[in-house]
Amino acid sequence: MTITMYEFAQKGMQRVFENEKWMVGIKNWKPENDITGIDRLERHNETDELFVLVAGLCTLVYANETDDGFRFGAVKMEQQKVYNVPAGLWHNTITQKDTKMILIEDSNTSMVNSNTFYLNEEYIKTIRSLV
After folding, report:
1. Phi, psi angles (nearest 5°) of residue 123
2. Contact yes or no for 130/63 (Cβ under 8 A)
3. What is the pLDDT of residues 32-84, one digit of tens each?
4. Most buried residue, 30, 58, 89, 107, by most Cβ within 10 Å?
5. What is the 3-state secondary structure (H, E, C) of 82-112?
6. Does domain 13-130 have CATH number 3.20.20.480?
7. What is the DSSP letter of 21?
């Protein structure tokens, strides 16, 4: 046996390790996660997702559904701390070009058990004001 090392330096996210129980990914800045490119939220209906900010800046934006639409919130991440996004919570990450994060989630998390919500202009303005 030996120790295996994983890395990912391109834009976006890559699963770098996966087994039957959980997955570790590296998430770097991409235009869709920039404050000027944000246009959607996602939620994972069956599993939590963990984020660790390694470098750069990231704000986790989230939304709870209400009878009147969405109620938005934001958490400015600090490096070396673990942030848990619970199953069912709408969320996305707002990052800058030097941002690198680690994410951990159940290996069965996919778009089959997740949803995407495309934001209208009013919601985008709200999110930008929080960040």
Report:
1. -65, -40
2. no
3. 999 999 999 999 999 999 999 999 999 999 999 999 889 999 999 999 999 99
4. 58
5. EEEECCCCEEEEEECCCCEEEEEEECCCCHH
6. no
7. S
